[in-house]
Write a structure and sequence with these properties.
There is one protein chain. The protein is of the alpha+beta class. It has three domains: 47 residues, Uridine Diphospho-n-acetylenolpyruvylglucosamine Reductase, domain 2; 116 residues, Uridine Diphospho-n-acetylenolpyruvylglucosamine Reductase, domain 3 (2-Layer Sandwich), CATH 3.30.465.10; 112 residues, Enolase-like, domain 1, CATH 3.30.390. It has twelve helices and 14 strands. The strands form four sheets. It has a five-stranded antiparallel β-sheet. Strands 11-12-13-14 form a four-stranded antiparallel β-sheet, sandwiched between helices. A three-stranded parallel β-sheet has the order 1-3-2, with helices on one face. Strand 2, helix 2 and strand 3 form a beta-alpha-beta unit. Helix 5 runs antiparallel to helix 8. The longest helix is centred in the last third of the chain and has 24 residues. The chain starts with 6 loop residues before the first strand and ends with a helix. The model has no long low-confidence stretch (mean pLDDT 94).
């Protein structure tokens, strides 16, 4: 199918993008990489009258490390995240998640900011950002503000962005200790949306205890979810097999997925959460111990 008729506007700065968004209100949509927005427009699920292309804003594409802070511009692509040594060293879960998004074409064009703004509960990057406790820096017509990842995912395809706002940057604090992370994804075929996805980020202190734990879940709710009870089950403990098993059981109890004729029953998805949280913790732990 073809999208309905729209006017195309290419902007050169965040200020210009915010101004144009303000002029056209709810009739406008922001285009970044386009791999989330364009399919919905072709299906006519979305019918914006104005498409605002921010792809030319050079100041929104970067990966910067400043001591214990990692900053990623909203237009940074999955390919850039996957291949960044700085991201792999400090937030392996982000690099791991980026490496399994779609196919090479999607990873070369799709952006982290576009994915987070789109807010698809089947999106891989949302769970990774939850596991890493990302802070979203947003620019609006009258102010800039910061939104914690726990408050970002409001509902299916609904982020915390307000009318006229644009996501500029995602900030991550680097936990002290030995770091490890992983994103595991159960899918029908390579490049498909996740049946279940699990993002894990861990840090170990000098005694081998877990000093930081982040677990994000994909495709098992109306939004990407953070498994807080599972995190608490491993935090402050030496992550033995028994502790990991306890954490995976807590994650199993936390989710209430729905039946899906294409990707399995709710019961199957819950069981896969238990399996993949255990595997994700084991993989992240191995990475942390060898870091």
């Amino acid at each position: 199918m073809y999208p309905s008729k729209f006017d195309y506007v290419r902007v050169q700065s965040v200020e210009e993008a915010v101004r144009v968004l303000g002029e056209h209100g709810e009739e406008a949509r922001v285009l970044a990489g386009g791999h989330s927005l364009i399919p919905l427009m072709k299906l006519r699920v979305l019918r914006p009258k104005y498409l605002i292309d921010i792809g030319g804003i050079q100041g929104l594409k970067y990966i910067r490390r400043d001591k214990n802070t990692l900053r990623i511009g909203a237009l940074t692509t999955y390919f850039e995240l996957e291949n960044s040594l700085e991201v792999s060293r400090t937030h392996q879960v982000i690099a791991s998640g980026a490496s399994v998004v779609g196919d090479p074409q999607v990873r070369n064009w799709g952006t982290i900011g576009g994915s987070l703004s789109h807010c698809d509960p089947s999106g891989d990057m949302g769970s990774c950002v939850l596991a890493a406790r990302g802070l979203m820096h947003v620019r609006g017509p009258s102010e800039t503000r910061t939104v914690e990842s726990d408050n970002w995912f409001v509902d299916t395809f609904q982020s915390a962005l307000r009318q006229g706002e644009i996501l500029e940057e995602i900030e991550f604090q680097v936990p002290p200790g030995k770091l490890g992370g992983a994103y595991l994804k159960l899918e029908r075929k390579s490049g498909d949306y996740a049946i279940v996805g699990v993002a894990v980020s861990l840090a170990l202190d000098s005694s081998g205890k877990c000093s930081y734990a982040g677990i994000g879940l994909t495709s098992v709710g109306a939004t990407n979810l953070r498994a807080k009870n599972a995190e608490n089950a491993i935090l402050g403990k030496i992550p033995t097999k028994e502790v990991i098993s306890e954490a995976s059981e807590e994650a199993f109890k936390e989710v209430t997925p729905s039946d899906d004729p294409l990707r399995g029953s709710a019961e199957y998805k819950k069981e896969m959460v238990r399996v993949y949280v255990r595997r994700g913790l084991e993989k992240a732990l191995e990475a942390a111990r060898s870091s």
